[in-house]
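Q: What residues go here?
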């Protein structure tokens, strides 16, 4: 028996079931909820519950919420949504792209200590503990501050044994740069998932990463901008990797925030219109398409149930 930490406490990994490894219940900015307390949280909670109840009814039982402090993480919102929807939520420590100014000249060890504390003791005095480490580098590759947080994430991984899921910009092969830094830090690459790897169809890039021993995330669905592969091209690449023997190292998710505080209602409605299936898109569209392409039911089960369970149990 192996446990994974959720916002409502540890659960047996056997109970994870259908798991999406990179989602966001609420995205906003650090400090907004404390500085401007009239900003309503209840609407965000209600929308999150609505979305996750819908997911639960279709068999999705666990999500990993990779919202970090600089994305305005609100663990009380996550907790309330998990409790009311019945979906397990694993929340994250780490840093996304809005690296706090104070981190930019910090020693990675000092930042790692902050991450470790969120995994061992809890987040912002709530006792809610993070179960995964998130780190992000994007267009232009790993910057100097980006390198500091990668090293901090690696050191927190070594201290706790918790996995890392990254955000990358695959068209520029940013995953390769992340791996070089993780290798330098001497972490077990089996504990790393290079996320957003499906923003490209570059098979050589993906297999190069996989040969290093990492997992890769097909964790952007359907497609967030016009200059990247559409969902069908993503799924065809996924099937190609499965057929090439990499099926046990692939993780699926959407990365499409369920709510965004202060974002214009019109803009948000546009997002929903673009993807009305939302957090059920993979279940309703991607898995059936994989079947059309020849995948067996047991293989689909492997992708969405067994792979995330093994990833959180320690890989292999
Ligand atoms: Zn994300």
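A:
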């Amino acid at each position: 028996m192996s446990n994974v930490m959720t916002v409502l406490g540890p659960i047996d990994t056997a109970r994870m079931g259908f798991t999406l490894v990179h989602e966001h219940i609420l995205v906003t900015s650090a400090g907004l909820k404390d500085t401007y307390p009239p900003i309503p949280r209840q609407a965000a909670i209600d929308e999150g519950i609505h979305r996750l109840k819908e997911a639960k009814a279709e068999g999705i039982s666990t999500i990993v919420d990779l919202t970090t402090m600089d994305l305005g993480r609100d663990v009380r919102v996550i907790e309330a949504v998990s409790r009311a929807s019945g979906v397990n939520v694993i929340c994250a420590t780490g840093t996304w792209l809005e690296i706090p100014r104070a981190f930019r000249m910090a020693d990675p060890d000092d930042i790692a200590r902050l991450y470790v504390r969120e995994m061992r003791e809890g987040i912002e005095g709530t006792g809610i503990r993070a179960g995964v480490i998130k780190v992000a580098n994007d267009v232009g590759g790993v910057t100097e501050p980006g390198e500091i947080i990668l090293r901090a994430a690696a050191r927190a991984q070594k201290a706790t044994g918790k996995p890392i899921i990254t955000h990358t910009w695959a068209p520029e092969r940013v995953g390769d740069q992340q791996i070089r830094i993780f290798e330098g830090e001497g972490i077990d690459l089996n504990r790393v998932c290079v996320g957003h790897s499906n923003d490209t169809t570059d098979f050589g890039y993906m297999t190069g990463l996989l040969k290093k021993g990492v997992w890769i995330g097909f964790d952007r669905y359907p497609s967030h901008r016009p200059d990247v592969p559409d969902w069908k091209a993503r799924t065809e690449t996924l099937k190609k990797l499965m057929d090439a023997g990499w099926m046990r190292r692939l993780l699926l998710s959407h990365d499409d925030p369920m709510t965004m505080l202060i974002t214009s209602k019109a803009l948000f409605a546009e997002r929903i219109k673009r993807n009305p299936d939302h957090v059920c898109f993979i279940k309703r569209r991607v898995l059936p398409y994989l079947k059309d392409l020849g995948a067996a039911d047991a293989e689909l089960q492997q992708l969405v149930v067994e792979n995330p369970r093994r990833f959180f149990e320690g890989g292999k």
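A: Context that may help when evaluating the design: The first helix runs from residue 32 to 35. The chain has one domain: 3-313.
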